[in-house]
Amino acid sequence: MSLWLGYAHGAARGHITKSPTLAELDLPKPSYQEILDRDGDSVPDVLRTQQNPIPPTAPVELARYTSQAFFDREMQKMWTRVWQFACREEHVAEPGDYFVYDIGRHSVIITRCDDGSLKAYHNSCLHRGTQLKPRGSLGHSPLIQCPYHGWTWNLDGSLVEVPCEWEFPHIDRDELALDQCRVATWNTLVFINLADQGPSLGEYLEVLPEHFRNWDFSGWRTSVHARKELPCNWKAAQDAFIEAYHTRLVHPQAMGTSGDVNAQHDIFGDHVSRDIVALGVSSPLLDEPLDDASILQQMLMGDAAVMGERPSLADGESARGVMARNMRETMEQFGLDVSGHSIAESIDSIKYTLFPNLFIFAGLSLRVLYQYRPLGNDPDRCTFDILFMRPNPPDQPPLEPATVVHVSEDGSYSDVPGMDPGFAEVFDQDTAILRAQRDGMHASKRGVATFSAYLESRLRHIHNTLDKYLNA
Q1: Which of 222-236, 289-303, 351-365, 415-429 has the lowest average pLDDT?
Q2: Which residue pairs from 284-287 have beta carbons closer than 8 angstroms and sit at least 24 positions apart in sequence?
Q3: How remote is the C-alpha of 438 from its chain's centroid?
Q4: Cβ(401)–Cβ(88) under 8 Å?
Q5: Are 245 and 455 in contact (CB under 8 A)?
Q6: CA 148 to mean position of chain CA atoms
Q7: Max CA pair span of the chain
Q8: Facing residues of 273 across strands?
Q9: Gap between the Cα atoms of 91 and 87, Å rounded
Q10: E strands along 376-426, which residues?
Q11: DSSP assignment string, 111-152
Q12: Half-sphere exposure in the Cβ direction for 14 (13 Å, CA)
């Protein structure tokens, strides 16, 4: 069912469908921009940008999360046409390195060729269709060989060997090069697109290259990679990480040390949106905000491997300022020049969403990627990947990227080696609620969700962009 039918359904029930403006909303204080003013330092223009044309506030059909027919339309008309993050360049650094990316029944082999270029091939033998590499695998191979009958291709996709070739006098080797799909890179991230035609990656990324001019991921490796199977639709999983409306009930331990309902939400285009959450402040929902000394003492967010020892607060200092200084000093030990980084860049959660399923954290302390993918062809199952990036040690060869650690639905992120305990607690809390949400969606009599105007505007925006692909 399309979102426009959802709008009509909402109007019939008397729901408000008019879109309010930001000026008409009584948003909680302090706003993120007011927190920046209070910091008193210079921040990049991209953090001063506010852009949120709030979408119409009609209900959204829950069938968009639960229906097999809707899921099948997504697979056919959206996933086959969008640029999708597959891996980082470090996963395919040397000639012969390969990485298999899977989405639904689609599977793609990304490999580094002898000339240093990247190629992406459909993971299917041109003899009788056998899978060439196991789904979800990565490794090194100087050739691509079918495990069934041994047909073999060079890394550039050219056919090199057909066993018992006298049996195939009718084939043309040139016509049996591996079928390619588009592949491109940006900021160490490798993307694939199953469509032969369409926007380039640069066009698809919209404002991201400009916004990330000061946030280069080169020299940063994947230090922790966790993948959890979740009992819900892929959109429901990522919805849980777009808004901070749930913080009061789901993450009560964070109320004193981070913003939530005063987060800033921006919509820049069909594919890119953003939320910014201030750290080192208290939620405006608290009756009394914590003082700076208490905030610094209670800080739970942040990677202990990077933050090191918790600093103390001197007279006249803010918790945000001390945290930022400590972060910059820590990063300088990795040989990074971060002297020009503002307080906000150093500590805040600056999270960009790239349609359909990638979250990219900017700034300094939180360089993380979130990725949400359907698991097979089940609308009620998905995987959630978390990739933490940390600087490579100075004056040393780059370290190997961390191997993926699988977490079961009932498992805890605290069991992932290298995972910060504070983050593990938050991720466990976020993912524990998703089965209840899925079952409630299926049990709903009304069959619609009622999103808020601003805090959940980007959830609605993703549905709007999705409809543009489904209705094209």
Answers
A1: 289-303
A2: 284/28, 284/29, 284/30, 284/259, 284/260, 285/28, 285/248, 285/255, 285/260, 285/261, 286/255, 286/256
A3: 21
A4: yes
A5: yes
A6: 36
A7: 85
A8: 267, 353
A9: 7
A10: 378-391, 404-407
A11: EE-TTS-EEEEES--TTT---SS-TT-EEE-SSEE-TTT--E
A12: 0
What is the per-residue pLDDT across 337-393, written as a single tens digit (0 to 9) for each? 898 899 999 999 999 999 999 999 999 988 999 999 999 999 999 999 999 999 998
Structural domain 3-68+203-470, CATH architecture: Alpha-Beta Complex (3.90)
Indicate the pTM of the whole model.
Answer: 0.92
Give ∠ CA 387-271-193 in degrees, rounded to 5: 70
At 265-297, the pLDDT tens digits run: 999 999 999 999 999 999 999 999 999 988 988
Say if residue 173's pLDDT is above 90. Answer: yes
Domain boundaries, the chain: 3-68+203-470, 84-198
What CATH number has the domain spanning 84-198? 2.102.10.10
Quote the CA–CA distance of 313 and 297 in Å, as a whole number.
9
How far, in Å, CA of 357 to CA of 375, rounded? 13
Residue-wise pLDDT tens digits, 10-40? 333 344 456 777 778 888 999 999 999 999 9
Cα separation of 61 and 3, whole Å? 7
The SS3 assignment for 110 reads: strand
Contact 366, 93 (CB under 8 A): no
Question: What is the SS3 assignment for 440?
Answer: helix
C-alpha distances (whole Å) from 33 to each of 155, 208, 267 are: 50, 21, 16
pLDDT of residue 10: 39
d(CA 32, CA 265): 10
β-pair type (272-277, 448-449)? unpaired
What would the DSSP string read from start to end of 287-309?
A: SSPPPHHHHHHH---S-HHHH-S
Is the alpha carbon torsion for 198, 201, 203, 205 positive or negative? positive
Cα angle for residues 190, 191, 195 (degrees, 5° grid) = 155
